[in-house]
Amino acid sequence: MSDGLNDARAIRIAEIMEDFRNLQHYIAQIRVSPAPEEFYLEGYTLIRQCHSEAQAVLAAPFNVENSPSDHPEQQKSLLKAVLLDASIRRFRCQRIYLRATAAMRWINSRHAVLGGDSGGRASPTTLQEVEDTLQAELVNITDGYVEYTLRSQDVQQGKWLGEDPDLRTIQQYLFP
User: Which residue, 15, 26, 122, 162, is the most exposed by fewest CB within 10 angstroms?
Assistant: First the structure.
């Protein structure tokens, strides 16, 4: 017997996929042009890594064992599988986005410290503080924090979260 929530599930999938699309767009819009001597510095390397990871999320196949059907119980099962996949993709992109924005703050802070001069006239102590800030930000981007940012935004927008997978479920698929 169907539980009557298939329409709510479909709407929730659309909301999550909209978030996913927006995150992919934001990540793709991050553009940096480091000087040759800065190319391998951590912030710039992190931006390239984030772009690569975002592309991998897009390229990942969706494998579902159920096929579309008119039977409500089969639809429910398919919608739950799609909801899980969409939630995992959104989670991964949110984590990538948070890391990319931390890298952009590092780039902007470093640029401000150097005054636009990558030749290194800034105080080594000040540059180390910028490095330390990036490291601290990256350490704080935990799975729990990523989930918190997504859930708090969803709650603030009044979205139905009745069947969103919890963090433990998402982690089972991230780290099988």
Answer: 162
In which residue are the tokens 């000087």 written?
Answer: 35
For 121-172, the pLDDT digits (tens) are 788 999 999 999 999 999 999 999 999 999 999 999 999 999 999 999 999 9
This prediction has a pTM of: 0.93
CA dihedral (160, 162, 168, 171) in degrees, to 10, reads: -50
Contact residues for 141 (Cβ-Cβ < 8 A; gap 6+): 95, 98, 99, 102
Q: Where are the domains of the chain?
A: 6-174
Instruction: Report the amino acid identity of residue 63.
Output: N
Nearest to 12 by CA among 142, 159, 116: 159
Contacts of residue 93, defined as CB under 8 A and 6 or more positions apart, other chains included, come to 20, 23, 24, 27, 54, 57
| Distance, CA of 120 to CA of 127 (rounded, Å) | 9
**Using CA atoms, how far apart are residues 168 and 18, in angstroms rounded to an integer?**
23
Q: Two tokens at 121?
A: 């006239």
CA distance 57 to 85: 11
